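ok trying this again, last paste got cut off
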Amino acid sequence: MRRRFSLHMWCQAFSIKSPKEEGVTGLQVKGLYKEGRYRDIAQYCLRDIKATKELYRYWEKYLKF
């Protein structure tokens, strides 16, 4: 069995601001879409991207391509 880890967990592990800290989670996106709150969805996605970038920057020095 493979264990999956969330972006939120990785952010917490490396003291990076989690996208969930703004009050929106991925579980809420469907409801936001139905309500026509596209801007809130876009902002949530942008926070995901920023957190992923910060994690990458942290690990970049350890990765060898």
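PB: full thing came through this time. The chain has a mean pLDDT of 89.
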